[in-house]
Design the sequence.
């Protein structure tokens, strides 16, 4: 190995001397001047990195540079120890990357859990609002039913002529509901008071609407 290295160094030295001699001859013969030497130096040893792929070049050379730095810092170590040190360094970097990946996944899981909690809270709030609306409707219905029952009992005790006057001021569905809820004798007692032509026409419409549910039930 040492002999091969000596041969390579000797060959490089011979080539360097030959290159320097050729350069001196070209310079003295007028084939090279200061500008041409500067141009050749810029081509061989560029001072600026091409702007087209700066990130690509940096990304490509970074691992090699880091490896060179590691080898340079431990050049005096035996080969086996160098390999072991590089392996341990790479394993530590891999472990660090795995830890960061695990932390990123844990953060994603936490974000997903927060989103699910917010969705569940919104659904619970919507259900609560709907329950309040349903309770309000139910309370209004109960109040309406109680008022209807109270009015029905009152109409049963009132004179039929007065009840007829009240019915003439109500809409057809409300009157039909009262007549259907009454016993037959109470309903007949009130309907007999519809004597005027417009009252008779109104009664015909009421009776027709009362028969419609019966016809629908038979069908």
Sequence:
């Amino acid at each position: 190995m040492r002999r091969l290295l000596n041969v390579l160094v000797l060959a490089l030295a011979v080539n360097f001397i030959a290159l320097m001699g050729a350069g001196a001859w070209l310079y003295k013969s007028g084939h090279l001047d200061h500008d041409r030497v500067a141009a050749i130096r810029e081509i061989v040893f560029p001072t600026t990195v091409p702007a087209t792929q700066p990130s690509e070049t940096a990304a490509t050379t970074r691992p090699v540079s880091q490896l060179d730095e590691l080898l340079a810092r431990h050049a005096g170590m035996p080969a086996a120890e160098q390999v072991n040190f590089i392996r341990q360094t790479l394993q530590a970097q891999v472990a660090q990357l795995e830890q960061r990946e695990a932390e990123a996944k844990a953060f994603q899981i936490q974000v997903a859990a927060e989103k699910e909690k917010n969705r569940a809270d919104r659904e619970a709030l919507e259900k609560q609002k709907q329950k309040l609306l349903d309770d309000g409707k139910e309370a209004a219905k109960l109040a309406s039913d109680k008022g209807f029952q109270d009015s029905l009992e009152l109409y049963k005790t009132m004179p039929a002529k007065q009840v007829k006057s009240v019915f003439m001021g109500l809409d057809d569905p409300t009157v039909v509901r009262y007549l259907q809820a009454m016993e037959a004798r109470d309903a007949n007692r009130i309907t007999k008071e519809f004597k005027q032509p417009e009252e008779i026409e109104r009664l015909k419409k009421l009776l027709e609407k009362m028969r419609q549910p019966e016809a629908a039930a038979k069908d």
Summary: The chain is about 85% helix and 0% strand. The helical segments are 2-28, 34-44, 54-73, 79-157, 160-168, 172-181, 184-191, 197-218. Residues 152 and 178 are 7 Å apart (CA to CA). The first helix runs from residue 2 to 28.
